[in-house]
Amino acid sequence: MHESCGVVGVYAPNEDVARLTFFSLFALQHRGQESSGIATAGGKKLQVYAQMGLVSQVFDEEVLSRLTGHIAIGHNRYSTKGSSRICNAQPIVVSNAANTIAIAHNGNIVNSEVLSRELSDQGYVFKTSTDTEVIANRILSAPGNDWIEKIRYTMRRIQGAYSLTLIINDRLFAARDPMGVRPLCLGSINSGWVVASESCALDHIGANFIREIEPGEIVSVSENGVESYREESSRKALCIFEYLYFARPDSVINGRLLYSARMAMGAGLAEEYPVEADLVVGVPDSATAAAIGYSQKAGISVTEGLIKNRYAGRTFIEPDQRIRDLGVKFKFNPLPQILANKQIVLIDDSIVRGTTTPQVIKLLRRAGAKEVHMRICAPPLCYPCFFGVDMATRWELIAAQKTVPQIRDFIGADSLGYLSIVGLIKAIALPKETFCLACLTGDYPVPVQMEMDKLELEATSAELAFGDR
User: Fold this and answer.
1) How many CB atoms lie within 10 A of CB 227?
2) CATH architecture of 6-237
């Protein structure tokens, strides 16, 4: 499963906003590793720089020095709508005869194809295959006398998940969809303001966390300070996987430190699926806190049985066939001296396709583990996500095709236990109605087409350009 994107916005006169945005994006690198970009503005001057690669690969001192102004937005991308190529890197800049918008987007718009065709019929030409450009053009073309009216009109037209940062003229805007699928928070720094996907980004630049931006809220930051415009939303649907996997454990969402929530998930697994064992091992890094929680509840020692190569996959150099054949061993290296002749409880956050978990269990057995009991912090994933997570089709999800005993045999575990939905909600300690659980239950917060494709806008663009063939 791949992460969603990360967005940042900074309004800070007398500060190096490009540098603040760079370090904020660095803290949000876990949310997207395909491309990174920053746009800055001061007055009417707007600059943007976006390239493929990690934050540290895209930016250097020379690039940052050219990104001047007192407003900035930034973006780390994992592609959830549109392919991974330079034209889809964000922030993107969209203009009409009167105005220019720079925009960064985390999420996924489920009716983007319909809106794209509608705007194309009005004469708008799309340069990317992302739903982000659809949002920007929808704002530009929206009726209304001011930008709040235009953004609010657009929010009523688009369906799905979005946390946005925008530069329009001399103002920074941020907006979160009415369901609040993706997180977004507000902080202060000296005499300026910062918006970010997660609170950990504020911590890294010395900003003070103020509050979360509410579902359905638009925030405007200008020389007049912060202004908020809110509308009540009928249904909350924060993605449950922000708690399970996506967000960093040192981030706070809805007042709950993610590390503590994940420890509670591990404790819940120990209550629901106890087993006699010698050691608890978490698959690094997302299951580390849950492994500690399981250990404390079960009274079984926890250890690092797998060492992760944290730079695996973060290079432009393609591995040769010999490296590919190593498979998961390229990412994890077991500790035979620790694991030999031991009964292991292996904790992980989820099983998606079931391609990696069998290899991890084989690694432990080759290292001498006598038994491997698999425990998963998420209930079985049976349905795909259409709100900003590139997960899999339903036919690729192993839990949609096999029973729990069948999955246990397929992955080669001695036993398998998934945390129940009741146990998951108990661990997070918020009402069930707070969350989108669609990947677990099939109950989507808005209607979706089960066959939706993240490349659908590329097909639409080709069709509009060349006609049906």
Assistant:
1) 12
2) 4-Layer Sandwich (3.60)
